[in-house]
Amino acid sequence: MAFVIVQHLDPTHKGIMPELLQRSTGMKVLQVKDRTMVHPDFVYVIPPNKDMSILHGMLHLLAPSSPRGLRLPIDFFLRTLAQDQQEHSVGVILSGMGTDGTLGLRAIKEKAGLVLVQEPSTAKFDSMPRSAIDAGLADIVAPVGELPGKILSYLRRTPLMAPSEAGLEDKAQGALGKIIVLLRTHTGNDFSYYKRNTLYRRVERRMGIHQIEKMAGYVRFLQQNSQELDLLFKELLIGVTNFFRDPAVWEELRSKIIPELLTTRAPVHALRAWVPGCSTGEEAYSLAMVYREVVEELKPKANFTLQIFATDLDRDAIDKARTGAFSDNIAADVSPERLSRFFVKEEHGYRVRREIREMVIFAPQNIIMDPPFTKLDLLSCRNLLIYLTAEVQKKLMPLFYYSLNPGGVLLLGSAETVGSGTDLFSPLSGKLRFFRRIESSRRHELIELPSSFSVGTSIRNEMAPATKVAVSLQSQADQLILRNYAPPTLITNDKGDIFYISGRTGKYLEPAAGKANWNLFAMVRDGLRFELSIAFQKALRQKETVRLHGLKVEANGGAQHVDVSVQRLDEPGPLHDLVMIVFTDIPTPVPAKAMKEPAKNVRSTEAERELLRVRADARASHEEMQTSQEEIRSANEELQSTNEELQSTNEELTTSKEEMQSLNEELQTVNAELQAKVDELSRSSNDMKNLLDSTDIATLFLDRKLNVRRFTPQTTKIIKLIPSDVGRPVTDLVSELRETTMAADVREVLRTLISVEKPLTTLDGRWFTTRIMPYRTMDDRIDGVVITFTDITVAKALEAKLRRRQTSITGKPVKASKPSTKAKAQRSRP
User: 446 with 654: CB under 8 angstroms?
Assistant: First the structure.
C-alpha cells in the first residue's frame, strides 16, 4: 500500500513536509516529480504550486489553472484516484479549511472505494471533515490515531467472491436474497432488479467496514441494526453526480439538440424534460442553465418555456436538491461566467437563482415501480441503466418510448445503449449517447407500466443454483407417444384464446394476416369456422362433449375430412372451465356405386312421382339451409367485427388510464413541491415575525411606491396604522411626528441608494432616531425601503437634565443644542 499526501500549499514557498514526515516513519518519503511511478510502502507528497493526478499507477503534475484564488487540489487528485484505482481507492480527509475533497470523495464512493474522515472535534480546522460528513460520504469517522488501524483492518479482510470458492458463492447468493428482503421490508424498495455484481460489491464493502467475515453474519447484523439498513440503502443508491458532467454532452445539447427542439415545436408548446435518478439535482440544474443560454443566444420570437421533472429514489437527496444550495467546490465544474450568471454567492457556498430553481420540479420516485412522466421532449437517464439487470433495461426502453413525444430525444450514459430498442430509437451522434424516438411498428403494443414489472422471480432464478433433473424412460416414451399418435388438441378459454397446443394443427389452423392474434376463431381454416363456432358455444352452455362428423377442410391445395370434439373441462385446478378441442382425421368417403336400374315393368308411376316430390323438398330444404348458413355466417362476421372494435376501444381505454396515472403522478409531484415551498415560506414568516417582535423597535416596510408592506406593533404608536392599511400610501396616514419630510427622505434613498439617519420628535415630546435603508432582495434588487424608529426619549431627557445641572453650577445658562436635522448618510453595501 502506498500513501499520497495532498495539501493546501502556498505556491510561492518551498514545502518542508517531506523532511518532517521522514522523521516520523521508516517508509521512504518523496516529493513528487512529474511521471513518478507509485510503489508500495512509499509516501508521496505533492509539491507547491502544482495539481496532481494519477494514471495507471503513475503520478503526473500539472500547472494549476489559476495561480491564486480558489484551488481544489484534493478534489482534483481524488477524482483521478477513483477513476484509476476503482474500488481499491481509499480517501482520507484530515483537518483543513473549506470544502475541498468532498467532490473527490463522491467519486471514490461511486467506485465502491473506502472513505475515512477525521473526527471534527479532534481537528484544528474542522471545515473539511464536517463538509464530508454532512454530505453523507464518510464510511468511518475516528480520531487521527485510529484511522491507520481502520484502513489496515479493512484491507486485510478476505474478499467474498474468490473465484475458486464456489461453495461460498452459493451460500452468499442465498444470504444476498435475505438482505434484499430485509431492505424491502425496511425501506419499501426492491433491489432485486439491481445487477448481482453491484449488490455484492456494495454489501462486501459494508462488511469490510464492520469487519464481518461471512454474509450470514452480516444478515444477522442487519436484523439487529436498523441504522445499518439505512446506510446500506444509501450505499446502493449510488447518488454521485456533478454539474456539467461530460462537457461534450452539454455542448451537443447547447449547439444542436435544444435549438432543434425549439425550431420543431409549436410556439405554444411548453417543452418538457425528465431526469430520473437526479440525486442532489446537479444534472437537472445544468439542463436548465444550458436551456437559458440557448434561449438568450437564439432569441426565438415565441415565448418558449421548459419544465424539468427531476426524480430520485433517495428522499434526502431530493430535499437537498430542492434547497438549490451547493458548496464552494462546484467552482471546479462550473465556469466563472455561469457562476455569476446562474448562482448567488452565500456565506457557505452558492445557491441557484430563482429563475433556474423554478424551472425544476423535484419529487421522490421509483422508476421501477411508479408511473412515468409523459409527453416529454427530452429524457435524460444517464448512468442509471448500468446498475440494472438486462431484463429491466429491456422493459424500460418501450416505457421511455411511450413517455417521449414523436421526435423526442433520449440521452443515456456513455456506457449505456438502447439494447433491443433499435426499432424504437435511432442514434443522433456517434460517441455521444443521443437517440431520437422514431415511428415503430411496436407503437400500438400495450406498454408495461413499472408496477407490472416482475423482476423478482427472474432474479431469484438467476441467483438460484442450477439443478439437473433426471429424465426417465417412461417420461420419454410418454412424450414420443403424445407427439406421434395422440390426435391434435387445443386448450382455450371461454373466449377462444389459445392457451396450449398439442400435436400438429397446421391443417386446421393458420395465422391470420395483420397483428398477431392467438384466437381460435381468427385462426381456424375455412370449412371449420362456422360449425366449430356453433359447437363451441353449445359445449359452453350444455357442459357436455359436442361432436362434429365428416367436416371437410381445405389445406395446402387438398381436402381433408375430420371429426371434431369440443368439451368444456370440469377438472379441478388450472384446467377448470377451459375448453378442449380435439381434431381426428377420417378417410375420405367413397361415393356409392350407381344402383342398377330396376325393370321398367316393376317401376310404377306413383313411385316416380313420390321420388320427384322428395327430391324437390330436399332441394328446397337444402337451399333454405344454405340461406340460413349464409345469414349466420354474416351475423358471425358482424359479431367478430364488433368484437374487434370493442378490443380496440378497450386498448384506447387502457392507454387513457395509463395517461391518467401519469398525469396524477405529475400532479402529486407538483403538489409536493408546492407544499414544500409553503412550509418553507411559513417557517420564514414565523422567524421574521418573532425576530421583529423581539427587537421592540418600530419597523416599517414600504415598497417602491411608498405603499405600506409590513409593520411591527410598535410602529402604531408613531403612525396611526391598522392591519387594513397594508397597501395604502404612507403619505395618506396620520402621524405623530412633527416633521413631514419622511416621504421626501424615502424618495431620496430610493434614488441614491444611500441610507439616511436623523432624529425626529413627536407631538407629545418623544424623541426617535429614524433610519431609512434600501430594501434589497436575495437576487440583489431594490424593492422599497425599511424604516426603523429607535426611542431615544430617555437619552434626550438625561441630556436636558445635565444641561440644567451645569447651569445651576456655573450660574450661566447653557444653550440647548438644536436637534440635528442633517442626515447622517452612509452608502449602502452593494
Answer: yes
pLDDT at 452 over 60: no
Q: Which three cell numbers stand for residue 3?
A: 500513501
pLDDT, tens digit, 9 for 90 and up, residues 58-84: 999 888 866 555 678 888 899 899 888
Average pLDDT over residues 121-139: 86
Long-range contacts of residues 647-655, Cβ cutoff 8 Å, at least 24 apart:
651/444, 651/446, 654/446
Q: How many CB atoms lie within 10 A of CB 607?
A: 11
- Residue 548: name the closest of 571, 523, 530 by CA: 530
CA distance 277 to 366: 9
User: What is the structure's pLDDT at 825?
Assistant: 44
Q: Residue 287, by phi and psi: left (phi above 0), alpha (psi -120 to 50) or beta?
A: alpha
Distance CA 307, CA 530 (A): 57
**Cell numbers that stand for 117 in this block:** 474522515
**pLDDT tens digits, residue range 340-383?**
999 998 887 899 999 999 999 998 888 888 888 888 999 999 88
Residue 793 or residue 484, greater confidence: 793
The pairing of strands 343-346 and 28-31 is: unpaired
Confidence of residue 471 (pLDDT cuts 50, 70, 90): very low
The rounded distance, in Å, linking the Cα atoms of 529 and 636 is 10
Which residue in this structure is represented by grid cell 381468427?
522
CA atoms of 209 and 192, how far apart (whole Å): 23
Which residues fall within 8 angstroms of residue 564, CB to CB, at 6 or more apart? 528, 531, 532, 535, 547, 548, 551, 581, 582, 583, 584
Strand partners, 583: 564
Max CA distance (Å), the chain? 182
| Length reported for the chain | 830
Answer yes or no: is pLDDT of 822 > 50. Answer: no
Alpha-carbon span 303 to 295, nearest angstrom = 9
Q: Per DSSP, what are the bridge partners of residue 45?
A: 5, 31
Contact status, residue 294 vs residue 262, Cβ threshold 8 Å: yes
Mean pLDDT of the chain: 80
% of the chain beyond a pLDDT of 90: 14
Closest CA to 582 of 501, 658, 690, 518: 501
- Concatenate the DSSP letters of all residues of 748-772 into one string: HHHHH-EEEEEEEEBTTS-EEEEEE
List the beta bridge partners of residue 433. Answer: none
What's the grid cell of residue 121? 472535534
Give residue 457's pLDDT: 42
Contacts of 761 (CB under 8 A, 6+ apart): 737, 738, 739, 767, 768, 819
Model pLDDT, residue 707: 92
* Identity at 518, one-letter amino acid code: W
Q: What is the pLDDT of residues 500-524, one digit of tens each?
A: 888 788 888 887 665 566 788 888 8
pLDDT exceeds 60 at position 470: no
Q: Whole-angstrom Cα distance, residue 310 to residue 362?
A: 5
| Angle at CA of residue 81, ends 78 and 86, nearest 5° | 125
Indicate the SS3 state at residue 791.
Answer: strand
Contact between 412 and 381 under an 8 Å Cβ cutoff? The reply is yes
CA distance 527 to 511: 16
Neighbours of 480 (CB within 10 A): 10
Mean pLDDT of 613-624: 67
Q: Cα–Cα–Cα angle for 581, 583, 588, nearest 5°?
A: 150
Angle at 659 between CA 654 and CA 661, to 5 degrees: 95
- The enclosing H or E element of 629 equals helix 605-695
The angle at the Cα of 163, spanning 159 to 164, to the nearest 5 degrees, equals 105
What digits encode the pLDDT tens for the residues 431-448?
788 999 988 765 545 456
Q: Tell me how many degrees the CA angle 701-704-707 measures, rounded to the nearest 5.
A: 55
